[in-house]
Amino acid sequence: MPVPERAERVEGLVSDELIDAATLAGVPDEFQRLWTPHRMAYIQAGPEPLRDACPFCAAPGMSDEDALIVARGTTAFVLLNLFPYNSGHLLVCPYRHISHYDEATAEEVAEIAALTQQGMRVLRSVSRCDGFNIGMNQGHIAGAGIDGHLHQHIVPRWRADANFFPIIAKTKALPQLLGDVRRTVADAWNS
Q: Can you tell me the distance from the alpha carbon of 81 to that of 60, in angstroms, rounded to the nearest whole number?
């Protein structure tokens, strides 16, 4: 390898070889990195950007790409979770701002169920998942992060998706960017 014009010695990396900064980008070191560029929206917006507004009420008024919506129905819609447990974690929400499942109309319940089934089929197709966690947390005390607007979780699971990160480091590694997942799921939704 020719020695670049501006180079520096990197001790312990390669003995007696000069390396420029551009070649260091892919060289492993002792740090483990979890790339989460989708979180930049929260950093730039400041703390609690939707504190005074319901994100599930705001989402339908945005573009599908900006809101991470993968499908829109008549009474409910499907979007990616901004804080996913696993890659492809979907939320099914009624358009109406209601807090609890027993407040939903028969039409909303039917469409939430149908969208959940379609979400499962799509995730199985595009991600080859082995199973799902499906559920609703009703109220803050039950674990709902957004307890004012009903939403159902569809979390794809794989046989090997559990590792030490969530247990020891309280960290979840997600292999895909949210925008890429949204595009893949949305493209497969009606095919």
A: 14
Q: Which residues contact 147 (CB under 8 A, 6 or more apart)?
A: 99, 137, 138, 139, 140
**Segments making up each domain of the chain, as ranges:** 37-189
**Among the options 38, 89, 149, 151, which is catalytic?**
151
Cα–Cα distance, 76 to 65 (Å, whole number):
17
In the CATH hierarchy, which fold is given to the domain comprising 37-189? HIT family, subunit A (3.30.428)
- Planar angle of CA 186, 132, 140, nearest 5 degrees: 90
pLDDT digits (tens, 9 = 90+) for 142-179: 888 888 999 999 999 988 766 544 444 455 556 677 78
Catalytic, 151? Answer yes
Q: What is the pLDDT of residues 39-76, one digit of tens each?
A: 565 556 555 555 678 999 999 999 999 999 999 999 99
Tell me whether residue 134 is exposed, middle or buried, using C-beta atoms within 10 angstroms of its C-beta: 0 to 12, 13 to 18, 19 or more. Answer: middle
